[in-house]
Amino acid sequence: VNPPLRGITGYEHIGLEYIASFLRKNGISVKVIDPRLQKIPPAKAVSDILDWNPKIVGVSIPFQDYVFDSIRFITQMRKFGIKCHISVGGIFPSFAYRELLETFPQINSVVLGEGEKTFTQLAQNILQQRDWHQTPCIAYSSDGETKSNEIKPTLTDLDLVPFPSRDLLPFALKTLGYAAIVSSRGCFGRCNFCSVVPFFSLSGSKLKMRSAENVVEEITYLVKEHGVQFLAFNDANFLCSRERAEEIAHLLIRKNLKIRYSIECRTDSVEMSLFKLLKESGLRKVFLGVESGSQSMLDRLKKDTTVEDNLRAVDILSELNIYTRLGFIMFDDRTSIEEVEESLAFLRKVKRKMPKGKLKGVSITARLLPLAGTEFEQYLKVSKKYLGSTFNYDYKIDDPMVRFLYRVNRFFYVSSTGFLSFLHLANRWENRWLKEN
After folding, report:
1. 160 lies in a domain?
2. Domain range enclosing 139
3. How many CB atoms lie within 10 A of CB 57?
4. Residues 269 and 120 both lie in one domain
5. For the domain that residue 40 is a member of, what is the CATH number?
6. Fewer CB within 10 Å, N or C, the chain?
């Protein structure tokens, strides 16, 4: 189950579809439910689950900020009389399993790391009435104590993993107009705010990639069997290997699949000849991990990129007329006024460079999130800056002026007039800074 989340219109949860495919390969009957995407009222979805009388229900908790939405759905299932085993999984539960199990007794177990093999083993143990507590890579509560079993490497060769089941694809195509696909898991980066690398490192390598042939085989299936015209690559970094990206592009061109697609990547991977090839093969949209226009902040985030890398990437995408969305973080706990000014100046440059209609709006209110399992979360806890709890985290910005600016920024951002007022104020700061330097 992908529970309904506030403000999320829906998306194809390919992780659940991978698990469903793995279960079916092992002879286990399964249903995939996404009330929001399938336009089913939550109460009706719960009623349907009750009618099906499953032995186990797996619930995804995909985003840390929406944990209570997922718990609300689980609580509703229990109130409706669903007494079977309920297991949760995802990046957040893998690192916050202790807090989840201690706070929400309606959860029986937590899958740690990648879910396909672990959830299948858990389901087999429950169906065959074996002791499910012995399942590797899970956590659970027993006699008031939270326990976690040994985490073992699960999927080492992604080419051997069956294609996702695509139960949700018809709904995704109707609602969103595109299909999701994953060609790699993990990343080679070391960004201190990202939970992707810590998550995949739990069950083995921090980065695993499918072969170009395997990826294009799935794309061919999606185009010919489902009529897919647009794909969203959900890889954290599609360009972990330039050679593989080129192979995928060449295969798409050779097979004349006429597919259009979007990717996510780092700025230091953007290169003109590569992106010309990718565009020829169908690339139309890029989510670019810029994060900041201040070098000191980029260094603090451990991006291992430069402001020049960021601008060069924007120049290339602008010249190729590729629709671009920037990943951007304006504030963290140590942000200075100078860094805010540098980032605002950077964004003005970006806006001037990009063709009209080819740059998605950038939120200047974004603050670095201390996601579970990240280096940034640990830093805040060690330095005694972490406030609140795993479910309701917070921290204070050191510089009082920046702290005030962040609050004003969030208040003004709700209206265009307020936003322009903020930019005017920021422009005055920038002019003052230029005069002083």
Report:
1. no
2. 14-148
3. 19
4. no
5. 3.40.50.2300
6. C
Domain count, the chain: 2
pTM, 2 dp: 0.92
pLDDT in tens, 31-63: 999 999 999 999 999 999 999 999 999 999 988
> What are the beta bridge partners of residue 180?
232
Spatial separation of the C-alpha atoms in residues 24 and 371, rounded to whole Å = 33
Kindly state whether residue 77 falls inside one of the protein's structural domains. Answer: yes
Both tokens of 177, joined, read: 């107009």
105 and 182 assigned to the same domain? no
192 and 283 share a domain? yes
What's the longest Cα–Cα distance across the chain? 75
- Pair (223, 363) in one structural domain: yes
Please identify which residue in the block is written with the tokens 């920021």.
426
Based on the fold, state whether residues 132 and 198 are members of the same structural domain. Answer: no
For residue 12, give the amino acid letter: E
Q: Report yes or no on 135 lying in a domain.
A: yes
Can you give the chain as a three-state secondary structure string? CCCCCCCCCCCCCHHHHHHHHHHHHCCCCCCCCCCCCCCCCHHHHHHHHHHHCCCEEEEECCCHHHHHHHHHHHHHHHHCCCCCEEEEECHHHHHCHHHHHHHCCCCCEEECCCCHHHHHHHHHHHHCCCCHHHCCCEEEEECCEEEECCCCCCCCCHHHCCCCCCCCHHHHHHHCCCEEECCEEECCCCCCCCCHHHHHHHCCCCEEECCHHHHHHHHHHHHHHHCCCEEEECCCCCCCCHHHHHHHHHHHHHHCCCCEEEEEEEHHHCCHHHHHHHHHHCEEEEEEEEECCCHHHHHHCCCCCCHHHHHHHHHHHHHCCCEEEEEECCECCCCCHHHHHHHHHHHHHHHHHCCCCCECCCCCCCECCCCCCCHHHHHHHHCCCCEEECCEEECCCCCHHHHHHHHHHHHHCCCHHHHHHHHHHHHHHHHHHHHHC
Q: What is the CATH number of the domain that holds 227?
A: 3.20.20.70
* Residue after which a domain boundary falls, among 128, 148, 168: 148
